[in-house]
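Help wanted!
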Amino acid sequence: MNARLLPYILILPVTLFLCLFFLYPFLLVAKQAFNNGSGFTLENFQEVVGYWKFPISLKNTLLLAAAVVPVQLALALLMATMVNKMQKGRDLILYVWTIPLGISDLAAGIIWLAIFEQSGFLNSMMSGLGMIDRPMNFLSYQHPGIVFLAIALAEIWRATAIMLVILVAGIGLIPKEYYEAAEVFGASPWKRFWRITLPLLRPSLQTALVLRVILAFEIFAVVAALGGTLFPVLMGETYAYQFDLLNSGAAAAMALIILAISIGFTLIILRALRVPKGAQI
Amino acid sequence: MAEIQIKNVAKRFGSYQALHDINLTIADQEFMVLLGASGCGKSTLLRIIAGLETQTEGEVWIGGRRIDHLPPRERGIAMVFQNYAVFPHLTVFENIGFGLRMQKLPNDEVKRRVERTAELMHIEQLLGRYSGELSGGQRQRVAVARALAMEPDVILMDEPLSNLDALLRLEMRAELKGVLAESNTTAIYVTHDQVEAMSLADRISVMHEGRIVQAATPVEVYRNPAERFVAGFIGNPPMNFLPAASADGGKWQVAGEIYDGPAAANGVEFAIRPEDIAPADTGLPAKVRLVEPLGAHLLVTCDVDGTMFRAILESDLQVKPGDMLKLAPQTDRIRWFDSSTSLAVA
Ligand SMILES: Nc1ncnc2c1ncn2[C@@H]1O[C@H](COP(=O)(O)OP(=O)(O)O)[C@@H](O)[C@H]1O
Ligand SMILES: [Mg+2]
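Answered by r_m:
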């Protein structure tokens, strides 16, 4: 067997699998979006973008990502730094903190619904403490702020750990000697975080942010559980086109729009956290 | 003034005692080398002085100020690490200027000092590069420049040359000596390489199993080892030892020969350096086992009185394995060690 050919032969099955079950369906979706049966068209895109709910759902999706991802990033960095400083019980803490990862997003939405709904945990606690006389409906159109907050909280609770895991691994890769050198040359713990940890963590930050931002644009089940129709998001609208309105051309167009936004942000993140040649660990 | 005083310092890692009751004073601007085999506690002692490790007992003073409770950055020290620890995400310029930036010095002062130390270390043309674009030797220079740029009272170096190849090590050794002599800093330099220690040090502290067994000038350590361990550690090859039997009035019988030795002692061992021996008509009877030409000399390994014995002899001497020689030690170079305490006796 030719040794130079072998690696390519070994990745062939995966490549074929991806082509068959990813690339091909993707092309079908693209065809659906750009074709009305008689040829190339932008009608589907004009239709979905022109619909009154589109700007709202776009705004909601972006706002949610803008609110949730930075909080998650900060939390994950803080937690990863803490985990890294631990001598004992490090693994246990890490397991506990990553439990929410094992729960599906719909289940997470339902857990938080149980907290916020009219007969929920929050209401019974507040009336128990005498803060309210009768149960309130937090998740209604009268409290858009609370709906947003509930969704953001559920998302933060559910998906911070995915960043945490990546960042813990990344911090573990930074040699201890850099911290000692920084310490000797006058960097306070805070400065060491900003001047050593963060810049050396850029590759992991890239991965964590790209993954998290893409997932944030695909938010669906948590919103469906907590906001229902009160809080339209892009993925929810895609679902509605496909299964409620049975307009698969429009659904395909929506899917491509979400894909374009994801690719755009991915490129921005990769560019912003680029590590210059020769500056890798 | 940056005299360093280490008073009764001990360090335990759990139940393992890495350092025992270390006492050492290093004079202002002195170049002190900590020399010892791997695992003897050199790095631990250096890191305690740096503040990267906390002693279990004892005190560290620098320039008349007790500093062992202070964080590293408040101790007036700079350090060169074994693996250089040149920050990969910063250019050479920013690496050298790292400590100065932390002190919030103005930009033009940082620039002045970085450029001056870079010039001193001959890396002024590398200032824009990242560490990934440097060779090991160049990284080493950056690490030294970064320490020198701080203009510290004390510079600590942990085996700074051990990752360089032999030729580069020789070159950097000479350069370091010159640069540090100019800089008026007190230096502590850790190494396991005795040649490096000899060539650099004002004084050498020989360490063994968490203790300092001798702290003296290189010549003193070489000529008058304070303990049998030092005699057997320093020198390549190290000292030869032979058992001695008392023969009255400060005379001792060694392999059948009589030598003047210490007057009052219980049991002693005779010791002589391989290069302080010459073939003669009378002397220690030696059976040659192995002859290794070293160019300028012959290293002859013999058997004296059932003990291995090495001699460095003139290279034109005709000798081969199996020959019998008489080896005469240079009498003023003979040393004696107490067989129960291992300490040198005169
Ligand atoms: N953080 C630590 N925990 C436990 N043991 C250690 C630690 N650091 C060093 N030691 C032990 O202390 C001894 C001295 O180590 P070190 O000072 O690094 O030796 P050297 O630098 O002379 O080679 C070694 O036996 C080493 O295993
Ligand atoms: Mg060491």
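OP: Thanks! One thing I noticed: The mean pLDDT of chain A is 90.
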